Amino acid sequence: MANSQAPLYQQVAIDLTRRIQAGEWAPGNALPAEEVLAAHYAVSRITVRKAIGVLIAAESVQKRRGSSATVASAARLAPAATVIAPPTGFIQERFAAEKQTRFTLNPAYADARLAQRLQVPVGTALLCLTRHVFDADGMVALFQTYFTAQALSVGRLRQSLNGGHSFYAFLRAEAIIPHVQREEVTALDADAGLRAIFGFKNARPLLRRQRVVASASGDYREYSDCYYAADRYRFILDFASDGHEAEPF
């Protein structure tokens, strides 16, 4: 199975993901019963249940009460989603001129969800860059960017961000050219956790943007999960076909 230092349920989850991606079970087909998977991996049914929960969270499988987990369609999207995949276009953003950004940079590791998106083994060392963006009326955006960082200097990255430079300007200075693999924008309402982060007292609309990025060499990989206050943030989708890369954040 996957990285032996990861919890058992994550090892099972990443191996099930590998088998799904290899086509062992086609979209719409049911996974084997919990007791069958438990016997195959020599783990408890509780461990298998937790592993399937990880796959559900990663949208690799679907499960309804009283039924078996089934493999999700690779093309399945959340409702009200717009997908932009190069070279057909990219997204650009327009912040208000008075924006301010607060960031934190912390170590992280790839769980099954991140491992699937970044195409790395479970347990791979990552960095997580979290950015809160404000304007004069309050918080307008939250960015969480997970990326492989073996070739990057954390000290230089902190210095660049403290100097007000964008994350992607730093990557260019490090001779890393990111290429967007996939972008997805979904409309949703803020749940209680997101309302607390944004300081919303009542239900408010959000835009969620997910993107997967990699360098041409594959040495750099990135997954970003971003939320925007849809009724206040200056958000523009620019569709282009000239092949240039967007510089979104």
From TrEMBL:
<dbReference type="InterPro" id="IPR028978">
    <property type="entry name" value="Chorismate_lyase_/UTRA_dom_sf"/>
</dbReference>
<keyword id="KW-0804">Transcription</keyword>
<dbReference type="Pfam" id="PF00392">
    <property type="entry name" value="GntR"/>
</dbReference>
<dbReference type="InterPro" id="IPR036388">
    <property type="entry name" value="WH-like_DNA-bd_sf"/>
</dbReference>
<keyword id="KW-0238">DNA-binding</keyword>
<dbReference type="InterPro" id="IPR050679">
    <property type="entry name" value="Bact_HTH_transcr_reg"/>
</dbReference>
<dbReference type="InterPro" id="IPR036390">
    <property type="entry name" value="WH_DNA-bd_sf"/>
</dbReference>
<dbReference type="Pfam" id="PF07702">
    <property type="entry name" value="UTRA"/>
</dbReference>
<feature type="domain" description="HTH gntR-type">
    <location>
        <begin position="6"/>
        <end position="74"/>
    </location>
</feature>
<protein>
    <submittedName>
        <fullName>GntR family transcriptional regulator</fullName>
    </submittedName>
</protein>
<dbReference type="InterPro" id="IPR011663">
    <property type="entry name" value="UTRA"/>
</dbReference>
<keyword id="KW-0805">Transcription regulation</keyword>
<dbReference type="InterPro" id="IPR000524">
    <property type="entry name" value="Tscrpt_reg_HTH_GntR"/>
</dbReference>
